[in-house]
Amino acid sequence: MIFYCYTEIGRQWNEHELTDKLILLPEDLRRQALKKRRWIDRQLSIAGKLLLLEVLKQLPGGRALSLEDLKYNKHQRPYFNADIDFNIAHSGNMVICCATNSGKIGVDIEQVKEIHFDEYSDYFTRGEWAYINRHANKLKGFFKFWTRKEAVLKAAGTGFDTHLLTIDVSEDHIIYDDVHYHIVPLDIDRRYHCHIAFTREQDKIKTAHIELQ
After folding, report:
1. Average pLDDT of the chain, as a whole number
2. How much is the pTM?
3. Number of domains in the chain
């Protein structure tokens, strides 16, 4: 099963609200969050970890895990030494966390906003770039492929340490580095594009909107 939850940061938390949320995190994660200069970045970081606690409650064996059990691979991707894989992404003021008890999973979300397209052509294969330029809404076509690529690379555990040009995500089922990935869009908010990628077919995908205000 896949379970994902998301939240939107609508305002800056007051000192009391911030303290109440920080106390739920281990000391190292508190320090990481508080190092961020902008309040929105601090809150996005904290919210991602709080959403992780929520998704763990939904999966078999998840309640036995805590944020203190987190480990990191050489690409700084967090994971648990357990049969549960998870991933967190944020953009704008939206945060999403997904998890599964079967295989690997990755997620990416991006706020749809104006960009300079020419700066990104080297990140896409020829076929992908042609699709983006033919799309009725070029901007949406761009973020569709961007989030698909990022979701796969985050599931693979490499993220931006792997150049996006090395992978083609034109199909919903692809093979990357000898591993099969399924790519599925998530309808979170019309202002955002979001995709998940996972390595094993799933019988259920469940979701919840979480209020952290």
Report:
1. 93
2. 0.94
3. 1
